[in-house]
Design goal:
Elements lengths: L18 E6 L22 E7 L3 E3 L2 E3 L8 E4 L5 E5 L2 E7 L3 E5 L1
């Protein structure tokens, strides 16, 4: 008889082509007067940290590597990419061209 075992699997994200996986960085907000703003009313974050990158895009048969790397903090388009949730963590998958700037 088979028994179920509990294992805590940590997913890894491997973007394809010229896509990157970003962990959004929530901006901390100081609320004056004890006001509570629900998550649904907050603006979507536009900054994040790159947690995985794809191999690059193909141009004329050659592989062109990405300009960003894991660990870079970036600004991206507000409504860019696809939002997914893995093990309770929000991740956004976007094309490198949707990255607007790297933060220093």
């Amino acid at each position: 008889m088979a028994t179920a075992t509990q294992s805590k699997t940590k997913f890894k994200v491997f973007p394809l082509a010229d896509r990157v996986a970003i962990r959004p960085i929530e901006e901390t907000e100081q609320m004056k007067g004890g006001l509570y703003i629900p998550d649904t009313a907050k603006e979507k974050p536009i900054q994040g940290e790159i947690i995985a990158v794809g191999p690059g895009r193909r141009e004329k048969g050659e592989l062109v590597p990405l300009e960003v790397k894991v660990g870079d903090r970036v600004v991206y388009g507000k409504y860019s990419g696809t939002q997914v949730e893995l093990e309770g963590e929000e991740i956004i998958l976007i094309k490198e061209s949707d990255v607007i700037a790297k933060l220093g």
